């Protein structure tokens, strides 16, 4: 069975770095595909490789039924395209950068095909990453950390947890092992 690996975690947890690291580790020639998100944010904003849409373009695509999932966060609209259904139905597992707040809907939509992967980070380390990033002041960071603690408590036991507190290569290795466990791929089948 093909699975949808739904990667979620707080800002600063390293979702983009982990997804990119897994993509590099797998290379081409596997049955795993990586979905780009459609976002109403400038492509130059850094982070993930996404498809930039204006708000009008986003609404047009939403009305046309071209999104499998969509949500709003951080003053932007986010979506995953319906192409992932074709990919899953053709036997390809898919990795997406999801939203913790949208997880319940994703679970109800994809059922047993959905593998929620929660990226967790020690709160002190996460605070430092957010401070270093410099996009928010300390009170905004405190609010973000409090929301993250609530999300993690609500999701306890319902997700595959992937800790990204230290070396990125170690976390990518763990992510790779999770993917191998679910897909049944072997290390020799990756290239």
From TrEMBL:
EC code: 2.7.4.23
GO MF: ribose 1,5-bisphosphate phosphokinase activity
Domain Guanylate kinase/L-type calcium channel beta subunit: 1-183
Cross-referenced Pfam families: AAA_18
Enzyme type, top EC level: transferase
Pathway: Metabolic intermediate biosynthesis; 5-phospho-alpha-D-ribose 1-diphosphate biosynthesis; 5-phospho-alpha-D-ribose 1-diphosphate from D-ribose 5-phosphate (route II): step 3/3
Similarity section: Belongs to the ribose 1,5-bisphosphokinase family.
Role noted for this protein: Catalyzes the phosphorylation of ribose 1,5-bisphosphate to 5-phospho-D-ribosyl alpha-1-diphosphate (PRPP).
Protein name: Ribose 1,5-bisphosphate phosphokinase PhnN
